[in-house]
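Researcher: Quick sanity check before group meeting.
Model: Go ahead. Protein one:
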Amino acid sequence: MESLVKEQPRVVHEFQKIISSNMLSHAYLIDSASSKVRQQMAIWLAQSQFCDNLVDGAPDQTCQKCQTIALGDNPDVLEVKTDKRSIGVDDIKFFKKEANMAATQGKRRILIIDESEKMTVQAANNLLKTIEEPEGNLMIILLAESAKQLLPTIQSRVQIFHLSNKSNDDEITALVNLGFKEEQAKRALKVTDIKYLEAIDGEKFQAYTTVITSWLKEINKQKINSFVDIQTDVMPLVENKDQQHLFFDMLNQIFSDILSIRYNLEKSTLTSVDILSNKSIKRVIQMSDDLFTAQQMWKSNVSFQAILEDLSLKFVD
């Protein structure tokens, strides 16, 4: 509790006021920060609905009911998690059915959907029906990297809380222990979630930065061999889906950095050089849009290598 209050005081105190006033909504969307912190916030909110020692709207997190929720053993608190690239409509239907059963440990049931941005359009629309017409005393908590990744219809029907993106000291320390330099760890946590960094070290993170930069420099020169670079330079580095996700996040950040350099905005994160100097701002924005579309295709299980090779051709065109 102390750690969460220290890291996210504004959101915690806002929820305390809402809980104390008995004004909780039936659907929330919590975004930003890391997946670890988002998860902690959702568990804290769930504990507030069962805790025997609630004080000023805050659970003590030490009573048996709070501990049971923290361990994932409360049948009234359901969590949707997946290692797949998407959450399908059948997944949502199954958990909705479970969530709509009568509560056994308290007065309500809680459905937490982690990485809710992974929901397919069909899954999101199916969940939307429940958000619009909730059954029983059900609370839905959606967790996402960014609220903007969810359908506008979902965003408009839930209460959104944005967590602080200030890096957690524990996460920085964890990355330093993995071989990251401290400043490098801080930059990396601005780019992506810690769960995509824990399986690599600082040297590999730098290798990713180097290979992306080299690829984009070839594209900037309109060299068609940038297509070949994907197979020879990128694919040997990227070993699994989490690393593919990290690659996309880093590529998105570099595009953001380039636009920041062009517009003289805040300090860039991964590159301080405009490596697409031969491309107009309009073209860079179009390339960024192409990248977004490509990432959606990847989430639909299209081959990572095929997507990057296609981007190479589009970017050079």
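Researcher: Fine. The other one?
Model: Protein two, sequence then structure:
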Amino acid sequence: MHAVNVALALVTAFPAHAVAAEPDPVAALRTLLARGAGATTEFYGQASTDISREVVRNGRRTFIGSGMALRGTGKVKLGRAGVVASEHVRHLSIGNRHLVVDEAAKDPYYAGLLPTVGTLRTISVGGRQYQLAPGKRSWVRVGRASGAAAAFGDQFVNVLEPATLRKLLSGKVKKTVSSWQKDHTTGRRQRIYNLTGTITLKELYRVSPSFREAAGSGAGLGTAEVTWTYMYDDRGWPYRVGWRFYAHPRPQVKGLGDDRILRGHFATQYRYWEKPMRITAPKARPGRGLETDDLADVLSAPKR
């Protein structure tokens, strides 16, 4: 065979990554839903509250504030309509906790927040939710909830709902595409598509069942909007999703929960969609859950 023919044969047999067809993230999600796929998750986030106090340090007056930091791991299991089961191991810490303790005496939201400091485990499966509160040894069955409830109280943007994903992609979106890289955890060589846009919380509430469940009546959404980022791989499979929020004076956008949270961000990483996933209910007794067990609870906090 001539050298030119050999080269053409090799190109045909081994097509370059650069000419691979671009994946359709909505179609890819539907494939995962039909398959009943599952994934592991890692997540992290921060939120700054409006609590502040003037103090004197080294002879100078200054202001200190309080904020929350979250991190953890989990699992999600899909069914034909969306997430049918989820599991969350969430660690929450509070900076300048004494400020929140003082505020809790007059604000039920902060009073409910304090018991969640530490490691909180939640499982949603079979139409019910289970909690293992920080410092406790026994699981509690806290009531009825969707399979998505454990994983989407902090993560407002549920890209595992086809309608929500379509809504995000239908707006004005900025898109970038990475070079081919190896994932440092799975070792898989992949290309990542990165989409960024904005959506108001009211729009998200209308389209997303899991956000409606987490946010309650929706009365506290106001005019707030979040900037979202969605990343999917060369198969179209979800890789990472995140949101961030900033209150600002012009135009007037109040903080979340009647100005309780002025800034926040949260991101969830998905991996191992190709592996089997099982989530089961723990042995538990009926009981009452924590009043404030995720970031979305601030959206239904009482007026101040």
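Researcher: One line on it for the slide.
Model: The chain is about 20% helix and 40% strand.
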